[in-house]
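Propose amino acids for all 256 sites.
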């Protein structure tokens, strides 16, 4: 088992990608906390669900103090909590802009800040932040989301530089389209540019635009996160790992 004896804290652990990560970590021998605003009634053995708001400094401070008392440290932190507002900047209110940064960026800052003293006690600590291919290239109508993911990418590199010498590796996983509730609401929302088509035609259009002709699953993402969390990835740090079926590798082709 690749995470035998390790402990892991996963924010957004009850979401589409978070659940796949927590379940995979538990199957690989880790003790896992899924920390989320949402619930997960049938969480698998080895996964404990706790109510947690990433935007609260008190929650981060108290949560990490409890983990330290219980586990005496922490080996793996996954910052996966996130929200997506499907609007241009003109349509985005200041409140929506601030909420996007509060969850996607401040949340990562706060949980990481209070986890660091625990991670320093590990023999091989790994932090995995959730960026997005939207932090490199933009989907139309996702302005605040794209901006938060760009910030996550820069923060990941800064954390890797600062804390690498303390034995803490920090990487970002940057997925393309992954089939989760977040993607379903993108399909159903106004920002999708559906332009009169059905959800099925939009899904097919999304598949077709990928060189691999498919979008990703939460398990695809969990496979990469598992490797980054494990000691197999001891030389991997400070990188932005794009997982997008080749989507961002291609230029749009003209129909001649
Ligand atoms: N699904 C995709 O296509 C995709 C693509 C690129 C990046 N991502 C990123 O992957 C991560 C996981 O996304 P997902 O697709 O599983 O989304 P999801 O909506 O299924 O899960 C996100 C989880 O974050 C939780 N959350 C939201 N606000 C929170 C808060 N204040 N405190 C604690 N938890 C909170 C939600 O309750 C939810 O369980 C996100 O950071 C997202 O931006 C997803």
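Proposal:
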């Amino acid at each position: 088992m690749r995470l035998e004896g390790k402990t892991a804290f996963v924010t957004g652990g009850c979401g589409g990608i978070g659940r796949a990560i927590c379940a995979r970590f538990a199957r690989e021998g880790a003790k896992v906390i899924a920390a989320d605003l949402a619930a997960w009634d049938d969480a698998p053995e080895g996964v404990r669900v706790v109510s947690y708001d990433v935007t609260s400094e008190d929650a981060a401070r108290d949560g990490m103090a409890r983990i330290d008392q219980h586990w005496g440290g922490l080996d793996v932190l996954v910052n996966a909590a996130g929200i997506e507002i499907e609007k241009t900047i003109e349509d985005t209110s200041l409140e929506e802009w601030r909420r996007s940064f509060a969850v996607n960026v401040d949340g990562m800052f706060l949980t990481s800040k209070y986890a660091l003293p625990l991670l320093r006690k590990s023999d091989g600590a790994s932090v995995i932040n959730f960026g997005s291919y939207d932090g490199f290239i933009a989907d139309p109508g996702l302005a605040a989301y794209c901006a938060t993911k760009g910030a996550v990418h820069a923060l990941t590199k800064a954390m890797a530089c600062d804390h690498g010498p303390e034995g803490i590796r920090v990487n970002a996983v940057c997925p393309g389209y992954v089939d989760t509730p977040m993607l379903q609401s993108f399909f159903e929302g106004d920002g999708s540019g559906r332009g009169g088509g059905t959800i099925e035609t939009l899904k097919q259009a999304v598949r077709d635009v990928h060189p691999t002709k498919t979008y990703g699953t939460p398990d695809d993402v969990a496979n990469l996160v598992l490797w980054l969390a494990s000691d197999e990835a001891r030389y991997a740090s400070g990188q932005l790992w794009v997982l997008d079926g080749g989507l961002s590798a291609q230029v749009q082709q003209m129909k001649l």
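The pocket of nicotinamide-adenine-dinucleotide is lined by residues 11-12, 14-18, 36-38, 52-55, 80-83, 103, 107, 130, 132, 175, 177-178, 180-183 (CB under 6 Å). The mean pLDDT is 95.
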